Protein: Membrane protein
Organism: Chondromyces crocatus
Amino acid sequence: MDLLREFFSRLRDLEALLTWGGYPVLMAIIFAETGLLVGFFLPGDSLLVTAGVLVNAGMINPFQLGNFENLLLMNATLMTMAIVGDAVGFSIGRRAGPKIFNREQSFFFRKDYLIATKTFYERHGGKTIILARFMPFARTFAPVVAGVGQMEYRRFAMFNIAGGVLWVFSMTFLGYFLGKIFDAKQIERVVILIIIVSVLPVVIGAIRHRMAREQPVVGVVPLDPASQRAPKADKD
């Protein structure tokens, strides 16, 4: 319990969190955000970029490797966790089926995010598994929606591996090279900038969602029963 309390207290300071928890915390967060429905609030993008910055600075190096070798090891480890996480999410969706859309929304389960991801999936098909990696919240629910939609597992695995590799590689290498550009004394400012940039799309999306809900409604619009059904099968 004390460990969990310590984890959540440090979640607001990614640099402190990663220097405290290192590889185990990184692995746990990447897996939970992609594999567990309750992981939607975890800061995957900013965490990966921050990890790259800290690897360049030699602040996360449990095996005393060269910085670049350490970055490659981190990539292999976190790509594996991201891929396994999505596979678990897919399994949850396949086992739960359409009834998961009837589950009540709560702090730990955001039904609105799930339905929004389902709509995105029906528009973009299997590519959603790759695109959602770069979209906060959607990356948690996309594999679940694919599982509910009974996507062929071989197709899902192809998109899953491609998305996991691209996401982890792009974010950690971005952080690593940002760390080379900025002086070590500026790391904290770089991390803050990363967090702001990664959170900004979420804030904009939330504002747009609220504005759309506050639009005056003319007449009565019936509830679309399709929002409670399984997503259409992927034909891409």
Residues 127 and 168 are 17 Å apart (CA to CA).
